[in-house]
C-alpha cells in the first residue's frame, strides 16, 4: 500500500528537541537555572562590613529625611528604593541624632546561606526589626523611622502605676478662663 502524501508525516526531531519540548525537560531546565542562581547567591552574599556600611548609610538617610515630617508606608517604600541608589549627606548636622541612635540602638548583621539580614535591636523592640537584606552582592534597605529609639523618657511614675498615657487630665470640669466655654450637659429635658 502506498500512501498518497508522505510529506504530512514528519519526524518529531532529534532527542534534544524532544527533551526540551517535554514537561520533564522543562522542569529539569528550570531546576538547573534555579540551582545556578542559588550558587551565585551563595558566592555573592555581602560581607558583614559591606552590610554594616550600607545599612548605616541608609539609617542616616532615613533620619535625615524624617527630621520634621514622618511619612506613611508608601513614603517609606519609595524612600527605601531611593536610598538604594543614593548616599547620605555627610555635611548635614545630624551628629546628635546619630549619637542617640548608636546609644539606644544596636545594629546586628546575620549571615545566612544565600543572603544576609540586618536587624536593629533596642529596648522598644528587643527582638529586633529587620532594616536590610543583602543578596547577590547588593544590599536592599527596609528601613523605617519608627524602628529606631532616638530618645528615652519614663513610661511609669511609680511601681504600682500604669503606663503614662497622656499628660492631659480629662477628668476635670475646669475648662479655662473663657466664659463662653462650658461643659457639655447633654440635651435639655
Give a verbal description of the structure.
- The chain has 189 residues and is an alpha+beta fold.
- The chain has helices at residues 15-21, 23-43, 48-65, 73-85, 95-104; strands spanning 105-111, 116-122, 129-135, 138-141.
- A four-stranded antiparallel beta sheet has the order 1-2-3-4.
- A hairpin with a 2-residue loop joins strand 3 and strand 4.
- Helix 1 (15-21) packs across helix 2 (23-43).
- The longest helix has 21 residues, at 23-43.
- It is elongated and about 115 Å long.
Which descriptors apply to this entry?
37% helix, 5 helices, alpha+beta, 189 residues, 4-stranded antiparallel sheet
Short description:
With 189 residues, the chain is an alpha+beta fold. The chain has helices spanning 15-21, 23-43, 48-65, 73-85, 95-104, and strands at residues 105-111, 116-122, 129-135, 138-141.
Amino acid at each position: 500500500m502506498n500512501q498518497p502524501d508522505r510529506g504530512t508525516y514528519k519526524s518529531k526531531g532529534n532527542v534534544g528537541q524532544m527533551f526540551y519540548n517535554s514537561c520533564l525537560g522543562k522542569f529539569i531546565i528550570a531546576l538547573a537555572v534555579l540551582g545556578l542562581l542559588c550558587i551565585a547567591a551563595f558566592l555573592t552574599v555581602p560581607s558583614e562590613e559591606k552590610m554594616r556600611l550600607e545599612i548605616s548609610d541608609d539609617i542616616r538617610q532615613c533620619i535625615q529625611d524624617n527630621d520634621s515630617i514622618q511619612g506613611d508606608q508608601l513614603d517609606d517604600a519609595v524612600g527605601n528604593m531611593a536610598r538604594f541608589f543614593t548616599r547620605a549627606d555627610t555635611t548635614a548636622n545630624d551628629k546628635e541624632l546619630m549619637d542617640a541612635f548608636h546609644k539606644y540602638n544596636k545594629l546586628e548583621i546575620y549571615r545566612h546561606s544565600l543572603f544576609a539580614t540586618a536587624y536593629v535591636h533596642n529596648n522598644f523592640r528587643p527582638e529586633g526589626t529587620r532594616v536590610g537584606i543583602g543578596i547577590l552582592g547588593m544590599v536592599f534597605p527596609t528601613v523605617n523611622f519608627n524602628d529606631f529609639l532616638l530618645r528615652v523618657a519614663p513610661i511609669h511614675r511609680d511601681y504600682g502605676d500604669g503606663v503614662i498615657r497622656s499628660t492631659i487630665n480629662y477628668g476635670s470640669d475646669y475648662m479655662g478662663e473663657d466664659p463662653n466655654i462650658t461643659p457639655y450637659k447633654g440635651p435639655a429635658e
